[in-house]
Amino acid sequence: MSLMQTDGASTAPPPAAAHAVAAPGRRALALFGALLALLLAALALSRPASLSGDGEEYLLMTVALAAHGSPDLRLDDLARARPLMPGYEPALDELGRGIAAGALVPRQGYYRGNDGRAYSLHFFGYPALAALPFKLLQWSGGNPLRCFQIANLSLVWLLGLCLLRVFGSAPKALAGVALFMGCGGILYWNWSSPEVVSAAALLAALLCWCGGAPRRAGLLAGVAALQNPSIVFVLGAAPLLALCLHYRRDATPGANLRATLTPRMLAGLAIGLAIWSLSPVFNLIEFGTPSLIAKVATAHELISLVRLHSLYFDLNQGMLIAIPGVAAALLLGGWRAGTAPSRRLGALALLLAAALTVAFAVPALSVHNWNSGAAGVMRYAFWAAMPLLFLLLWRLRGRRWPALPIALLAASQALAMAHASQYLYLEFSPLATWVMRHAPGLYNPEPEVFAERATHGELQLDPGKVYAFEQDGVPLKVLYHSSLADPQARLCGEAPAGNGGAGQWRYLDHPAACAAPVQLAAAQFQRGAGLLLGQGWSEVEQGRGVWSDSMRSQLVLSYARGAPPQQVVIHGYYLDGNRRTRVALNGKDLGWFDLQAGAPLAVQAKGAEHGVTIELTHEAPHSPGPQDGRQLAFFLQGATLR
């Protein structure tokens, strides 16, 4: 039976106000399938294949499945993969040594199973889809890495067939495929990761469930959930969506429910659950846990409203930047049409679709690397948005498409994809950059997102540091931990690190500019340039410096003409026998410092109107020789005021 046909009887009676859609014939199906295949083939040939996302693991599993039909990784598999993975040689060597040594963790991302074999952290569902294209490409002399392109675009092709069944029109079905690509598919179709497979299979499953083909829907939903297990929640939401979209007001609630929960619908749900269960069953057998990823790469305490907000609204990788037109169309379009009961059912369907995206998202909030590799929109946000895209497509079935709204929808999604393709996951998006330059208080991203994009590197957040977004060297927005007593001073390098204790990350918008450090040489000390020599010094040796000549020496930091510096670094070196100096500011003892090492002295100017007296008590002043009676300890060469 073709994907274009129903599973038999419809899952629900047609609604009273349904828009009839004629089923396409076999000839139309064949022509459409051939046309779409040609278009997708042209797209594939337009880009070279490459590894991206978790492509290293997926390629190794694909090689293993193609070679011996099992996902365990062997030394021969690494040798077969090596020519396909230039630049990965050190990683493959490390993994090979770990496998040969029988290590429980041969390398990060790979684990020893209960059967003694080495496996990838990720499940092998996606590589199983790519294994046959891999072998065919090897046999034909093509680039085997294109197996992932074929796996991804094959699901897009199936999605196109499902759209043809829903719309009954080839142009509209092609427009639906284009809209899918314009909601993130164009960003991920060439990735060697399962994002497009999950998104396309999920969207196709929803179309089939509500379009009268629930068993095919279950198959597609199971495929979608193989690598992204939280998609299993669609099995609970799909019957409710079908009930809302097919509800007959001339029938009782019980009759509508029975018409929805048919044996075919229940069979579809069972098929989806059975396919989804392959991953947890495998993990239980080999690793003793339903999800190895959940065990080693997630933490429940990371789940937060901040991350949930980030998944939907972050200006770098949130769902909104991928589907602005779709979201606007759902919120603004068509709610005035129909009767009040039909509008309520439409609103309920929208609420259910939105709730389903949240159900998909919540498990993903626990991952360690929130700012993970992405092509514009976050990977989770891409496929999690499919229920919203489905609802818009469903509302368009059987209707005459208004030209202006459709043009605006297409333009907004095209602009969104153009925007999302301009930056990498360690860079701020153009939109986020513009907002932080003009209104930084309006955008407070999740801390990991901000810190890694501000520093252009993956990192572990350090409570003792500040992370700044700068323009022309001027910080416009700063992330700091509440354990820092003075983030502004820390930003300017004038305060000690935080204590790392309890607290939270906060933002400082439009921080004050850091004063440029003032460099003083010895010849300037007697000219009123900010640091004056007091008692306990010898004569200034022009161009070189000045020796201390006493047990105690004084420096006067004068700031009568401006704001006081917050830190002084004294430059010089000790005479033999001296290794440290005791420092007091305005009579307050600060303890011993190694001035030769450039130890910074924090200036506490409170209560001092015109300056601060710095008193240095030397450790062991003594005469350098019989002809020199001075008591020397430290040779002062200069100072830096900050």
List keywords for this structure.
single chain; 642 residues; alpha+beta; five-stranded antiparallel beta sheet; 45% helix; 12% strand; disordered N terminus
Any overview of this molecule?
By secondary structure, this protein is an alpha+beta fold. It has four domains: 26-47 and 146-420, no CATH class; 55-142, no CATH class; 430-509, no CATH class; 518-641, Sandwich (Jelly Rolls), CATH 2.60.120. The chain is 45% helix and 12% strand. The strands form four sheets. Strands 6, 8, 10, 13 and 15 form a five-stranded antiparallel beta sheet that branches. Strands 7-9-14-11-12 form a five-stranded antiparallel beta sheet, with no helix packed on it. Strands 3-4-5 form a three-stranded antiparallel beta sheet. The longest helix has 25 residues, at 340-364. The protein starts with 25 loop residues before the first helix and ends with a strand.
Query: What is the distance, rounded to the nearest whole angstrom, between the alpha carbons of the first and last residues?
Result: 78 Å
Estimated radius of gyration? 33 Å
Give the structural class: alpha+beta
Question: What percentage of the residues does DSSP assign to strands (E)?
Answer: 5-15%
Helix content: 40-55%
Number of helices: 23
User: Roughly what is the average pLDDT, rounded to an integer?
Assistant: 86
How many beta-strand runs? 15
Sheet having the most strands: 5 strands, antiparallel
Oligomer: single chain
The shape, in one word, is elongated
Low-pLDDT ranges: 1-6, 8-18
* Number of self-contained structural domains: 4
